[in-house]
Amino acid sequence: MSEEIRYTGTSKDKILRLALLEAWGYTCYWCDEPLDYNDTEIDHVVPRSLKPDELDEMLDDLFRGKPRERAMFQIDAPSNLAPICAGSRCNREKGKRMFSSGRFEVKFMKAREKAPAVEKSVRSFRSRTPLSGALVAVLTADLDDEKTSELFKQHAASLDARVRRLDYVMQYELIDPFDEQFDELTLRLDEQGRRTVTTIEELSGFGIDQALQPRISRLKGTIRSELARAIEQSVENRGYMRPEAGSVGGSIRMRANRLRYYRAAEQFQLTGVFRAEGSAVVWVLGNDGTGMDEVQGDARGVGRFDVMFSIDDETDTAAYVNWRALTGR
Predict the structure, then answer these.
(1) How does DSSP classify residue 47?
(2) Residue 214, phi then psi, degrees to nearest 5
(3) How far is CA 170 from the centre of its chain?
(4) Strands (E) located in 47-160
């Protein structure tokens, strides 16, 4: 029977901290800023410090209609842990006032989704082979230490050459922390895609998340427009006339699986798939043929997207989507 993986508050958490950091793409789960191992702490998404009645109230809210999952909740389990900026800055911002917000619930659900990968990584690092031990030492080394830094620099070319021989997919999760809709983009990159990220970062002077943000905003706007049209169509199908959707609330999940650079045209291309769902108040023609009434409308859809953009001009972005409406629940 395999050992349970739990937070202990001791030096035994070293590998757990590394596994969490890898699962979250070397970013703080709360502010989405890049993190190094030595700048990272383990955070309890649902805090340990809650009083019993506060904890019960929070779990009842988070596990609405899921009593079995509620009963299995463990506060020190990987499903309730995430990497956070050291020094408690993000912890203070998170604060109890955030716990009832949609943003907090999104982070909690993502921690639960990532738990299997975290546990798999911990068990891999604990396999007690010479290589696993060496990898832990390399990945947790303090690069601010002068001797350690010099050693890494001395062998950086060799390490890079070894990694480049591998065929692997790198995954980024790009989330705008100020976007109340909590839309997200998962970016899965092959070798050519990873090289394209380097090109984007060199040309823009920004990290990939900042460089792509205005392009992803354009894409989300295009998808949200299709969602609004689908909501209007669903209302029209119910017999209402001249539907016009107001502000659309909901979520968009995008998964990009290809990122390329066309040097001759100085254009980048990002392609992938998406799933969107939302609702809105819809204005319709009144029953008597005059005035306007309002009804509630909702819709869901999936599709593919294709974004062409250049680095020098943020307005030079074209986003195309192929929308397919989903029916039923």
Answers:
(1) -
(2) -65, -30
(3) 14
(4) 81-85
Burial class for 162, CB neighbours closer than 10 Å (0-12, 13-18, 19+): exposed
Distance CA 211, CA 18 (A): 27
pLDDT per residue rounded down to tens, the chain (329 residues): 457 899 999 988 999 999 999 888 888 888 877 788 888 999 999 998 889 998 998 898 888 888 899 999 999 999 999 999 887 678 777 765 555 567 788 889 889 999 999 999 999 888 878 888 888 889 889 888 899 999 999 998 898 888 777 766 666 676 665 555 667 788 888 888 888 999 999 999 988 888 888 888 889 999 999 999 999 999 999 999 899 999 898 889 898 989 999 999 889 999 999 999 999 999 998 777 777 889 999 999 999 999 999 988 777 788 999 999 887 55
Count CA atoms within 13 Å of residue 91 on its CB side.
18
Q: What are phi and psi of 157, to 5 degrees?
A: -60, -40
Strand partners, 323: 303
Token code pair at residue 126: 């604990």
Q: Residues 261, 263, 269, CA angle at the centre, nearest 5°?
A: 25
Q: pTM of the full predicted structure?
A: 0.66
Which tokens hold the place of 22? 């890898």
